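On to our target:
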Amino acid sequence: LIETKPVDPDAKLAHMYPGQGSQYLGMTLDLAQRYGVVNSTWAEADEIMRPVIQDSLSRLVLSNDLTGADLEAAQRRLTQTEYTQPAMLTADLAIDRLLAAHQIRPDMVAGHSLGEYAALMVSGILSFQDA
């Protein structure tokens, strides 16, 4: 994380979370490779989602070595709601946790569609497990 200039101490920070449709294979992969908090968020998602999807969500989203038919199949799976929504929420929460670890916390949150759930999680109204 890079800071290029001092921040006005009276400035307010908003985090905004996207809805379904902005997902892609490899989202947050670079962060997961560098930051344990991102990796642990994906591991937590795997524990929560394994009974639902009988698979590892992180293995699907964070794969970077797929080619050909395997890549196409993974991309199709990620467009299915049962994978898309938990993947997006996990990516949102992983990034938020990373920012919080660097003392960057929002004063306000907002989300579009599915992103509203991420905003509820970050604000403490909804748990990761319940989302």
Summary: The chain has a mean pLDDT of 94. The CA atoms of residues 96 and 122 lie 7 Å apart.
